[in-house]
Design a protein that fits this description.
By secondary structure, the chain is of the alpha+beta class. The protein has helices at 21-30, 43-59, 102-123, and strands spanning 3-6, 8-10, 15-17, 34-38, 72-77, 86-92, 142-145, 152-156, 165-169, 182-185, 191-192, 196-201, 206-209. The longest helix has 22 residues, at 102-123. Bound molecules: fe (ii) ion.
Amino acid sequence: MHIIEISVSKSENQIKPSFDYLKLYDEVVNNRNIVILKSVFDAPFCERLKARVFDWGKSSNGHSIDYPGKSFHRMGNLNPNSMTPHIFHAYNFDLPDSSLEKCLEKDLIDLFNKMKQLQQKISFRALNYDMSGFTLPRLRPQIIHYPCGGGYFDYHVHPFEPQRVGLILNLSRFGCDYDAGGTSFFTKEKRFQLSGIMILATLLYLDMIFCTPQKK
Ligand SMILES: [Fe+2]
């Protein structure tokens, strides 16, 4: 497995990798390499989004079960019903959502539309599902917060279809928001403190550990 870092050009509405999409698909799916797109979203955008999502979580009650058709958040602390052990706070969005603060709603729509468009192009499978409502299948925009002091997500794998290609965006900065852990793969050869969008085949085993045990 190799890590390939590439740059992007950005326009108002889309992220354009410097590789063509067929080459990206080949590297990720056929060769099982990891591609990292650098500097896709700038630090002020990421900081602003994290702060607003966190504030929204503090200002609204968490839901212990899924809440279809609405945005909701929930703290998962080794829930016995979960297939994959984890400790994290999940923020799940139903977009558009006029009950959210206008700036937060706009940033979320901007982020997830760009990620969706990129995922469709790289996977060569344009699954045009909504990001809202009760009807399945639908896309489920989610931001996960791994709390300092032991947040983690254990090893798991997704089926190849229908997604084919997964995207992980790290909004946090290593050495600033956390100083141990990261995304890793089944070999545990290396942990990735990525600062961009990581693109991988969905059938790779991965986990995420942002434990930073010494911080509260
Ligand atoms: Fe996953």
